[in-house]
Amino acid sequence: MSTDLYDAFRQGELFLRAGQPTEAARLVQPVVEAEPANAAALELFARALLHSAQLVRAEAALRQLVELQPDDGWARFALARAMERQGKDASEHRRLAAALGFDA
Question: Does the reported pTM lie above 0.85?
């Protein structure tokens, strides 16, 4: 990861912690585009999208994260939440999240 991308990632973390998820997503999006296999960037991007209620985009990012890390219980749970908030059936992801030990 280049220095610019790393700086954008770190800034995104700070904005998300500061309660500014839309700005965090804007900052992290180029990182995800440059490094689509970077699970940490995808997770941060997905969290920012979820917190800013950008549910369609969050679902897409979470599906990408689940594809990269099928055993990530949080990603499965978050994907289920994003889907449920859109009125979609997410029972499969809920079950997998619980089986992976994440049943918050």
Answer: yes
